[in-house]
UniProtKB/TrEMBL annotation:
Organism annotation: Halobacillus amylolyticus
NCBIfam families reported for this sequence: PRK00230.1, pyrF
Catalyzed reactions per annotation: orotidine 5'-phosphate + H(+) = UMP + CO2
Gene (name only): pyrF
EC code: 4.1.1.23
Occurrences of domain Orotidine 5'-phosphate decarboxylase (ranges): 11-234
Protein function: Catalyzes the decarboxylation of orotidine 5'-monophosphate (OMP) to uridine 5'-monophosphate (UMP).
Binding-site positions, substrate: 17, 39, 66-75, 127, 189, 198, 218-219
Family that this chain belongs to: Belongs to the OMP decarboxylase family. Type 1 subfamily.
Keywords: Decarboxylase, Lyase, Pyrimidine biosynthesis
Catalytic residues identified in the record: K68
Lineage, top ranks: Bacteria, Bacillati, Bacillota, Bacilli, Bacillales
Protein name stated in the entry: Orotidine 5'-phosphate decarboxylase
Subunit structure: Homodimer.
Enzyme class: lyase
Superkingdom assignment: Bacteria
Length: 250
């Protein structure tokens, strides 16, 4: 691997699951969330394209570009080179794409980066996937923690900096891959929040206690009566959980 430095992971990313750029900028300004780390997903990026990235960078936001690439290695390599030029901080692929695809993604990022490159994460299993779906639809007849752990180890050996996983698998991944291997966990809800389409969920405090390095939160903030207060509460709960983990491990 090259000596190009990697970007850093922020503890909390606000998922901008909003309709368009106008809604995004209005929401950020209205609720005093300028400069917070954000996640841009498929819906927003496919509607607005690179312009939404330029706009957010100009406003001082760190960006997790969540496109979950999954294609043949050559295509992913070229795509990652293009994404690296957008100057985002975190990108991802599907771990199911396998070793050669993940290696190609890392090569594409390094080829297009100068001094620093985006962090490369691999999605193990979506938080909407449960054991029943894993077996009945994907025909994977192994326990979820075993599948996720195997994908994480393969991703690590292929050059990924970490994985996107549910909170339930963080401890297993840290044990097999080491604590420096990053875990970013979506599916975060406040105790009173609705689960909706996600099945493997957790509170910010539990995510912190379990050892997650970062969390992604959308609806618990964007649908809150006071999004700024919700953002701060979630960040504080997560950090409190992380402090407990650090104090018990020393």
């Amino acid at each position: 691997m090259s000596t190009i430095k990697q970007r850093q992971l922020d503890p909390l990313y606000l998922a901008l699951d909003l309709e368009n750029k106008s809604h995004v900028t209005d929401f950020i300004e209205q609720h005093q969330l300028k400069g917070v780390p954000v996640k841009v997903g498929m819906e927003l990026f496919y509607r607005e394209g690179p312009e939404i990235i330029y706009e957010l960078r100009e406003r001082g936001h760190h960006i997790f570009l969540d496109l979950k690439l999954h294609d043949i290695p050559a295509t992913v390599k070229r795509a990652m080179s293009n994404l690296a030029k957008l100057d985002v901080d975190v990108v991802n692929v599907h771990a199911q794409g396998g070793r050669k695809m993940i290696e190609a993604a890392r090569e594409g990022l390094e080829r297009a980066s100068s001094e620093t490159r985006p962090l490369l994460l691999a999605v193990t299993q979506l938080t909407s996937t449960d054991q029943t779906m894993l077996e009945d639809e994907l025909l994977v007849h192994k326990a979820m923690p075993q599948v996720v752990g195997h994908y994480a180890k393969t991703a690590q050996q292929s050059g990924a900096d970490g994985v996107v996983c549910s909170v339930q698998e963080v401890e297993t991944i840290k044990q097999s891959c080491g604590h420096s291997f990053l875990t970013l966990t979506p599916g975060i809800r406040l105790t009173s929040g609705e689960v909706q389409d996600q099945k493997r969920v957790a509170t910010p405090n539990i995510a912190g206690k379990t050892g997650s390095d970062a969390i992604v939160v959308g609806r618990s903030i964007t649908a809150a009566e006071q999004p700024s207060a919700a953002y701060q509460k979630i960040k504080e709960e997560f950090e409190h959980g992380r402090q407990i983990t650090r104090s018990t491990s020393t």
